[in-house]
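Student: Hello, beginner here. Can you help me understand the protein record under this note? Any guidance would be welcome.
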Amino acid sequence: MSKVINVMFLVGALFSSLVWADNEEGARDTVVKVVNEFRTQIVADKAELKNNPALLSEKVDKILTPVVNFDEFAKRVMGKYYRRATPEQRIRFATVTKETLLKTYGGSLLDLDPSKIKVLPLGPQNRSDEIRVDVTFQQDTGKLIDINFYMEDYGNNNWKLSNVVVSNINFGLTFRKQFGVMMQQNSNNIDAAITAWKDSLSKKQS
């Protein structure tokens, strides 16, 4: 009887590892789709989009919104202040976060060589809710940029971006630290901190 149980356990473990591997590939497939859309809809038209920031943001929005949970990302950025925020403040903060990400992504994409965007094979993964998908971009100047997309499965192979690290700069962690500084500088007034953070990000993007 014990041998039968052991065989069943081994079969179950093998099956679960195969399902995990399939899920990992689902995360990579989502990133491949997004990267291809970046390449064909934005980078290929960058000459036109450089003079039309509104259209650029609109295109990036259409590509990223289906694969990014901006409310959840904003919640992580707010960190410990999220519980203290009102529903209205949470919505406002999520809107600022989304606009910032769209502008940041859009502006960065305009400097890329469309023929040199590569989604790498999946590397070893930590057993967590997130799958890391590595992508390399090359700017027109020849400079390489490494981007790590952290993807989370929301069920039924519906993968969404939970965080992104660009050249070892963790966007989620960086944003959280920046907002924490704004809270301290504005006497822990959430509305004032959101305004100050938005103004600070706007200056960096101009």
